[in-house]
Amino acid sequence: MPKEFVNNGDYNDIMTLQEALDHCAADSDIHGPIVENYLEASIIVAEEKLQRSIVTHTIKHTKKRFSQVMHLLMPPVTAVTSVKYYDTDGVQQTIDDTNYIVELQGDTPTIRFKNSYSIPSVSCDYQYPVEIVYTTGPDVDERALNRDGDLKIFLKIILGTIWTKRDALAESASIDDMVRFAAKFVPTRRLFRF
């Protein structure tokens, strides 16, 4: 069940680069670009640990097959754009949104096919023939709460961890390298409830 971030939202909704620089006591002229990368890595680590979106994303979630009820990753989900699949002839088809119900509320958003809809067979030629595209992220009220609340403290913990241990990172480290590095030092999601 791979997920691919098609579009990422603005991280400034939670913490600005200037706030990150201030937290790290870093000089913007010297450390601006690296702290910006550390902030991006911190957001990704936080989302992975919390298993929820804290900024807006468009996600393409692929699956091996359909089920009557399909769970969506990274809540809160704000909208489902499309449900597509490759049919047994290898042609991509889009399922009309009148054939399913999208349930966005709660920690487990779902797509539920109507009982009257016959779930189609999918192609065996593709590893993941089912594709769901949807948008996740906090609403305006949640973003306002997160800017000054516990989530910001959590991000500062992650950012501070990366900053204080930066000598162990290669100067050319990618965002993925930073995420793997920081994830080793961050507590599990059970310690934080947002």
Can you put this structure into words, describing what you see?
This protein has 194 residues and is an alpha+beta fold. The chain folds into two domains: 10-54 and 140-191; 57-136, no CATH class. It is 33% helix and 23% strand. The chain is built from five helices and eight strands. The protein has helices at 17-24, 28-50, 140-148, 150-164, 175-183; strands spanning 3-8, 57-63, 69-71, 77-86, 92-94, 100-103, 110-113, 130-136. The strands form two sheets. It has a five-stranded antiparallel sheet with strand order 1-2-8-4-5, with no helix packed on it. A three-stranded antiparallel sheet has the order 3-7-6, with no helix packed on it. A hairpin with a 5-residue loop joins strand 4 (77-86) and strand 5 (92-94). The longest helix has 23 residues, at 28-50. It is elongated and about 60 Å long.
